[in-house]
């Protein structure tokens, strides 16, 4: 199960980081928010949604593959193909809501904390550089 876990984590991390920056940038570009808590919250929750959309298929295949009986699937790819053939594409999004809530909340905590720490560190640096 190591390879499916690494794949899933790489996909989730890339989706979170990229979409957070893109959403935040667009919210600021279109003057929908200023660079403050509401902007960070909306950007983080949006990043959680995008990450869930991208990662859910990998999560479902990984979970089924790891919980399968011996010789039920030859590989994660075999698991994926059998899922599509038997249940259709919607099978990849089973459990979407709980996954989204978990990733959405995680992203809000992570990115809001990151932005607050970044702002605090910038303020400390500005105080140190101040001639007064």
Automatic annotation (TrEMBL):
Membrane topology value: Multi-pass membrane protein
The answer, when asked if Transmembrane helix is one of the entry's keywords, is yes
Highest taxon above the source species: Eukaryota
Predominant subcellular localization, coarse grouping: membrane
* Subcellular location per the Swiss-Prot or TrEMBL entry: Membrane
What keywords sit in the KW lines?
Membrane, Repeat, Transmembrane, Transmembrane helix, Transport
The record lists the organism as Myotis lucifugus
Listed name of the protein: Uncoupling protein 3
Q: Does the keyword Translocase apply?
A: no
| Pfam families given in the database record | Mito_carr
One GO cellular component term: membrane
Give the protein family. Answer: Belongs to the mitochondrial carrier (TC 2.A.29) family.
What the entry lists under InterPro entries is as follows: MCP, MCP_dom_sf, MCP_transmembrane, Mito_Metabolite_Transporter
Solcar repeat ranges per the UniProt record: 35-120
One of this protein's GO BP terms?
A: transmembrane transport
């Amino acid at each position: 199960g190591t390879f499916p876990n690494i794949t899933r984590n790489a996909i989730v991390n890339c989706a979170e980081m990229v979409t957070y920056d893109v959403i935040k940038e667009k919210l600021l570009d279109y003057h929908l928010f200023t660079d403050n808590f509401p902007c960070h919250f909306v950007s983080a929750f949006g990043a959680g949604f995008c990450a869930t959309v991208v990662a859910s298929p990998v999560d479902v295949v990984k979970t089924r593959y790891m919980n399968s009986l011996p010789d039920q699937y030859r590989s994660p790819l075999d698991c994926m193909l059998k899922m599509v053939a038997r249940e259709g594409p919607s099978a990849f999004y089973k459990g979407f809501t709980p996954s989204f809530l978990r990733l959405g909340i995680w992203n809000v905590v992570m990115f809001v904390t990151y932005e607050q720490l970044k702002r605090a560190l910038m303020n400390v640096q500005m105080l140190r550089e101040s001639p007064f």
